[in-house]
Specification:
Layout: E1 2-6, H1 10-18, E2 24-26, H2 29-35, H3 39-50, E3 54-57, H4 63-76, E4 80-85, H5 88-99, E5 104-109, H6 112-121, E6 125-128, H7 130-135, H8 140-152, E7 159-162, H9 168-177, E8 181-184, H10 186-193, H11 196-210, H12 214-217, H13 222-225
Parallel strand pairs: 1-2, 1-8, 2-3, 3-4, 4-5, 5-6, 6-7, 7-8
Length: 229
């Protein structure tokens, strides 16, 4: 499963890239607004840093506006994926943009029927929002199961991109179900690394090392340790 970072912060993106942890980025107008930077230069800088898919959301409500924005986004960098909402107008835009070989991430998906229509419209990614369903006492991960089952019945190429991830268990369950991508905020990505037993084990190893005599602890190259000059 690929991991995307849901962020427009170059600091977060570069830190995650340094771990070898992410394969792409998803953004939206809210995330971009937090950065208080010029929009297109920021988006291009993110694309050049990531060397992978970068989803950016359209802000128009009508299909012609989304199509125009999508064309502009796609010309900015080859890594751009255009995000369109799962509305009638969004599906119209998805169909047109995909016919022009512009990748579309259909976002704000909350039902299997919506995911089916997005795939038929030619979506490159479908983004089901599992956390927001959980907030309403629904089982967000059940939506992933249903979409996975439906897509496996037919020759759709649309990839399942699990979004609105709130905690590490969402990520683990997405991977268990065979989702293609999970996108998450930096805080969740960090939480995937942490485990109290890892911290306790490392602390114990270091304490044991400190008990050794200094001459044993001295780190040498293999040749010097063997007495070879």
């Amino acid at each position: 499963m690929k991991i995307f970072l849901d962020s427009a912060s170059l600091t977060e993106i570069r830190e995650a890239l340094s771990w070898g942890a992410i394969d792409g980025v998803t953004t939206n107008p809210s995330l971009v607004a937090k950065e208080k930077k010029d929009f297109f230069p920021l988006l291009k800088e993110i694309c050049e840093a990531v060397h992978g898919p970068v989803s950016m959301e359209t802000i128009s409500r009508d299909a012609p506006g989304m199509i125009q924005e999508g064309r502009v986004f796609s010309q900015l960098h080859s890594g751009i994926v255009v995000k369109c909402p799962l509305t009638k107008e969004g599906l119209k835009a998805t169909r047109q943009l995909s016919s022009e070989h512009i990748r579309v991430n259909v976002t704000l998906c909350f039902s299997p029927s919506q995911a089916l229509l997005a795939a038929k419209a030619g979506a490159h990614y479908i983004s089901p929002f599992v956390g927001r369903l959980d907030d309403l006492s629904s089982d967000g991960m059940q939506l992933i199961r249903d979409i996975k089952t439906i897509y496996s019945n037919y020759p759709f190429s649309t990839q399942i991109l699990v979004a609105s991830i709130r905690h590490p268990l969402h990520v683990v369950e997405a991977a268990r179900l065979g989702a293609d991508v999970a996108t998450m905020p930096f805080s969740v990505l960090e939480a995937l690394i942490k485990h109290p037993l890892t911290d306790a084990g490392l602390e114990r190893f270091l304490k044991d090392w400190e008990k050794l005599p200094l001459e044993i602890k001295r780190i040498q190259t293999p040749n010097r340790a063997a007495g070879v000059s």
